[in-house]
Write a structure and sequence with these properties.
This protein has 172 residues and is α/β, with parallel strands linked by helices. It has seven helices and eight strands. Helix 2 links the parallel strand 2 and strand 3.
Length: 172
């Protein structure tokens, strides 16, 4: 399985590092892109994963795309990524971007919306996630393993993610 991180900031770096450290996937199975040279260098130094300035050459090989960009640029980034591989799973950690929007942008219901919190970066996270209409048990298990390797992980219905966001944003 190939996983592509779209955005290589601190949260994406923590997720990728956890995936590699906990041997969920090898660094060779992960790909990443970010427009910031500094973010690319830090991501690669921390994770051992190659990080490119753009995703266009990487997206066709990705079985899983993890969208980790600022919410205000997410729609434009999604448009640049299309078309994605048929059957690819899209995981989003973009705050405030709902499953309906992800479905519209990526033309698939195989999406998972995740709300991680910052303690995830030190392996003590408490994350919640909600499945899109076409995300199956395998998608739920994958997301649960990734987030669970960095703390607690709970699947919830999407309306509860806003409450999780309020709590996560209010504390450590």
């Amino acid at each position: 399985m190939k996983m592509l991180f779209i955005g290589a900031g601190k949260m994406a770096t923590a997720l990728a590092a956890g995936i590699v450290k906990n041997q969920l996937l090898s660094a060779a199975d992960l790909l990443a892109c970010d427009i910031s040279a500094e973010a690319r260098r830090a991501f690669t130094a921390t994770t051992g994963v190659r990080c490119k300035p753009t995703a266009q050459a990487l997206v066709a090989d990705a079985d899983v795309l993890l969208l980790a960009v600022k919410p205000q640029v997410a729609a434009a980034v999604a448009a640049e990524l299309m078309p994605i591989r048929q059957g690819a799973l899209v995981i989003s950690i973009c705050a405030g971007i709902g499953i309906n929007k992800l479905q519209q942008w990526f033309k698939t219901g195989n999406v998972v919306r995740v709300m991680p919190n910052t303690p995830l970066m030190v392996g003590k996270g408490a994350s919640a996630y909600a499945l899109g209409p076409d995300a199956n048990a395998d998608a739920a298990a994958l997301v649960g393993r990734i987030l669970g390797s960095l703390g607690l992980a709970r699947q919830v219905e999407e309306p509860l993610l806003d409450a999780v966001t309020a709590l996560s944003g209010s504390g450590p």
